[in-house]
Amino acid sequence: MAITWMFASHTSLGTSTTKTQLNGGSDLNLPEVTRCIRSIIPVTDIDTPTAAQAVYPKIELESNDFTVNPYAVLGPIIGASLGANGANFGSLPERFPVGANCPGGAKLKVYGTALVANTSAPTAGVGIEISTDPAPNPRVKAAMGTITSTGTATGAVSGTAYTFTGGQRLIEAYGAIGATTVAAKESCNGYFKFESTEFNPNVPLHVPIQPMGSGLSLDAAGTASNIEFMSKMIRCSVDIGIKPALTRIQDYAVFGAVPGTAGYFVTGVLFI
Fold first, then answer.
1. What is the pLDDT of residues 210-223, one digit of tens each?
2. What angle do CA 92, 98, 104 make, to 5 degrees?
3. 270 Cβ contact list (under 8 Å, min separation 6)
4. Cα separation, 121 vs 11, whole angstroms
5. How many other CB atoms sit within 10 Å of the CB of residue 137?
6. What is the pTM of this model?
7. Which residues have a Cβ under 8 Å from the Cβ of 108 and sit 6 or more positions away?
8. What is the mean pLDDT of the chain?
9. Half-sphere exposure for 235 (CA within 13 Å, toward CB)
């Protein structure tokens, strides 16, 4: 048995919300000895940030040679700042399980989409963990919600109505928030709520929101040059039965504090 990593190289996501194939627009050719994709680690970058813009990357896996989709997860968010002279703080890269068996020499397509358009194009890449042995656990499927405005009022904000098939158990739920216009002395906190009448048993599912703070620094002339929000993701492992024929889940962001200017939130789920 051997376990190693490959990389779908950083590729521009452009300045729109168009789905883009990573690895320079080319398929990733898996070695002949490959028998499964174990996990992935998405990474994102931007070299010229624009004021009041954050990066929200969606990462998807597809293949014509083996079954890996539906698989869509959130890459690291890069928080908003005042612009090119301000610092951007991105969330740490996350490792997501895949467990997709594949034939040797198969081709993997890796895509990235900026969920909010940026004036300066961000880039994304993905580390791919592969093994010469079949996956030890069931294949993981992944779905993401629709990016939604936080609004500017505390309380519950309705997000995505998930609908998917082929799942038997929900194994993870996560969510993240990000800012647009940044300002000092503002924060955001609360929790994400996932509701479904098809959870078996019918249990609540709440995921904490990583509190998002703000900071201010001045340049030598006393001009505000570095205000940023920290945008982070909290992932919660769960084990909840769902209906294979059709699963419907509604998510909400429930805010105890919210920025004065609306930002965005997005959630995701993993299931087997």
1. 987 665 555 556 66
2. 125
3. 73, 96, 97, 140, 141, 142, 170, 171, 172, 173
4. 10
5. 11
6. 0.92
7. 8, 27, 28, 30, 37, 61, 62, 63, 68, 102, 128
8. 90
9. 18
